[in-house]
Structures are given as C-alpha cells and as structure tokens.
Amino acid sequence: IIAITNQKGGVGKSTTAVNISAYMGSYGYRTLLIDLDPQSNSTSGLGISPINIKESIYDILIHELEPDEVILNTGYTNLEIIPSSIQLAGAEVELVPSLKREFKLKEAVSKIENNYDFIIIDCPPALGLLTINALTAAREVIIPIQCEYYALEGLGQLLNTINLVKKNLNNDLKITGAIMTMYDPRIKLSGQVIEEVKNYFSEKVYKTIIPRNVRLSEAPSYGKPIIDYDPECKGAEAYKNFTKEVIENG
Ligand code: ADP
Ligand code: MG
User: Hey, which bits of the chain come out as E strands?
Assistant: First the structure.
C-alpha cells in the first residue's frame, strides 16, 4: 500500500500514480489505484469521466459504503480503481467530527487489501485529513519531487507530517524514496537539485529520473496511461524502469 504524496501541486503525483499502476498491472500484479484527490486527475487520466461517477471514494469515507460497491474496472490489465469525485472536496471538513477520522481509509482498505498485490493512493496537494488518511492506511510513501529550484521548499513540513503519523497513527509507515520528476537537462540547475535532494533524503532517491516529456503531459487528455498512449516514448521508458524499482523495493 503506497501513498504518492507531496503537498505541492503539479509535481507529478497523479502522473506517477496512474503510470506505475498501469505498469504494475501489465506485469501481472493485481493493482488498485485509489484516487484521493477531489480534482480527480488520476480518475480522468484512466479515461473515467468524474461527472459520470455515481459512487466514489467520498462515499466510502463519509457514508461508509463498502469498497466493493465503488471499485471500477479500468479496462487495463489487472488494474482497478476507486475513483474520486468533486464531492470529496467537502470531505476534509465533513470528516472532522467523525470518530476515528484518521482511520477511515485504512478501515476500508483492510477489507480488500488481500485482493491486491499493490494498492496505490494518489494524494491531494495538501497535508489535511485526506492525506493523513492516506498516510495512515499506507505502508510506504513515495514523494515525487519536481526538478526545479524550489524543490526542497515545503519538504520539512511534509517529513514532519509523515513522522507524526508514524509516531501516532501508523508505526509501520516508511518513506521508500523520492522520485525526481520533469527533469530537463537544458535547465542548468536540474542536476544540482538532484544532488541537493539526495543529500536531503540521505540517498533515498530512486535511480530512475523521470524526464520532462510532452507525451506524458498529453496522455491524460486522452484518458490513457503512457503504456497505452505511447509505450515507446522516453517518458514511458522512465516510468517502466521506475515501476520495476518500486516492485523490487516492495
Ligand atoms: P500533481 O498530481 O502533483 O498535481 P500532475 O501529475 O498532475 O501533478 O502533473 C502536473 C502537470 O504536469 C500535468 O499537466 C501533467 O500532465 C504534467 N506532467 C507531469 N509529469 C510530467 C513529465 N514528466 N513531463 C511533462 N509533463 C508532465
Ligand atoms: Mg494530482
């Protein structure tokens, strides 16, 4: 159970969640993607229109619907999804008064985890209750970091939150690594940023570096993971290698 987390928006969380899920499925692992972001990017990124969704992760967290009633087939091999919907935006507030509010996702996941080899959770760009739920349910955290000058900004706060969850809610949680995204060799600083991130995470940085690649940014508008949209492009190659690293680590 892997949470893809960073409170910064636009760093590649959803792109990473969608693409490693699709590759895991293609390698024969039974995979479930949970879209925990009200913006529903990983739902639409797999070709499922959020406006057509009747039941979503929101209903699991707030109305205690059974996960089985919400899980959808994606049409991709071994890949199922618990979709998100815009209603989820209200969940941060609606969860506040509920009992064991940090454990809602964990309770749901525990009912179905034996059905899967990997469960990937795409987090919203915030450190609120939804992300806390993801970190409480997960065993591993992967942190996508964009190769840009402000890469380290906010990481202290993120690691602090992860440590608090580990101490108080989920002893088993561990950070398996940072994945550097949108690498552009034309930008001088990119290499330097990677070095800084390696220092910061004491080498817990995945070997694969995801390049900035136009095909990766086009694929979601066709509702396709890169394995389907353009399996030969550089971005596909990178996500394929990254997925292998994640599988080996797990
Ligand atoms: P997050 O989920 O962290 O907000 P996204 O995965 O949605 O970030 O990525 C933000 C934007 O950048 C999206 O438009 C996405 O298509 C694009 N993008 C993500 N990764 C890459 C990449 N490696 N190369 C080019 N564009 C990318
Ligand atoms: Mg996202």
Answer: 2-4, 31-35, 72-73, 79-82, 118-122, 140-146, 174-181
